[in-house]
Specification:
about 150 residues; alpha+beta; 3 helices; about 15% strand; elongated
């Protein structure tokens, strides 16, 4: 059980049950138990400036901090051979957002408008893989021939 001791809080050598908050208020044990039962834990990943870089399913669009991080990781569109600079690209979910993709830094990559739209409409034309340094690489496989009708 948690306990708090300090000047003026309890008799010397005796602890009050609860948690002393940074505000100086005492949070009773009953409230701590209720919070533990009804709360949801979330993972929070921040960069050196304290900006959140993993957003999970909370938001669809990349944050400015995520964009800055991606621009340092990628020079161009993540489709191999595409020369469009990363800062002119859209931020793409490697797992489509509509299919449950997360807006986490390690699940995002810069993708030019053409390849982003084409991949959304024709996913079979692309192969996604992890490249060096944990970055994503998208390879264009080309048009697949349609079967001939008989």
């Amino acid at each position: 059980m948690a306990g708090v001791a300090g000047p003026g809080l309890a008799a010397p050598g005796r602890m009050l049950p609860g948690l002393l908050l940074a505000t100086g208020q005492l949070l009773p044990v009953g409230d701590i138990h209720r919070l533990a039962r009804t709360s949801t834990l979330i993972r929070l990943v921040v960069d050196a400036e304290g900006q959140v870089v993993d957003m999970g399913r909370a938001v669809r669009l990349a944050t400015p901090a995520q964009r800055r991080a991606l621009y340092t990781m990628y020079a161009t569109c993540f489709t191999q051979g595409c020369p469009i600079p990363a800062h002119l690209c859209q931020v793409d979910h490697v797992d489509p957002w509509a299919a449950g993709g997360r807006t986490d830094l390690d699940r995002l990559a810069p993708c030019c408008g053409f390849h982003n739209r084409d991949r959304a409409v024709h996913p079979q034309r692309y192969e996604l893989r992890r490249a060096a340094g944990g970055r994503w690489a998208l390879t264009y496989l080309g048009m697949r021939p349609r079967p001939m009708r008989s």
